[in-house]
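Quick one from the shared queue. A colleague (R.T.) flagged LysR substrate binding domain protein as missing a structural entry in our internal table.

Convert sequence to structure tokens.
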Amino acid sequence: MGEYPRVNIVTATGLNGAMIERLGSPFDLVIAMHPSGTGRGHFLRREQAVWAAAINDLDLSDQLQLALYPPECLLREWAIEALDKIGPGWRLAFVSHSTAAVEAVAAEGLAVTVMKAGTFPRSLRHVPESVLPPLPSADICLHTTRSLARAKHLLVLSMR
């Protein structure tokens, strides 16, 4: 890798809890999402959770179909909590670890989903809070092993 030939970077995705539990072996760094203000890790940025649906179709006259991530995902938890407050008119229709799969189901008009505003895809449209209940925001934080103090500092500087 040019200036640092012995540095090996492997990128993996997963649910926050599982990734943080693996910090130290095999991961030296984990970027994870937490409820805003919980103060875990080194704060990188704040992301607003938003409802997303197909660009051309949003039929809320029937039972709301949801495409979400597996249990333990904050976005899933927040969606279910928000909808439970307004009543039983929804059902879980699709579950996947894959963001691309969840996006595709929503883009086809088969379900509504929840995304982070900062990574919102062009294939979907925002569903306003006047239609579906508001969602919380998340802190995106960096977690490192203690042995990476200098490396952590350099990484954080490069992310700003």
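The mean pLDDT is 88.
Residues 48-135 form a domain with the D-Maltodextrin-Binding Protein; domain 2 fold (CATH 3.40.190.10).
Added to the table.
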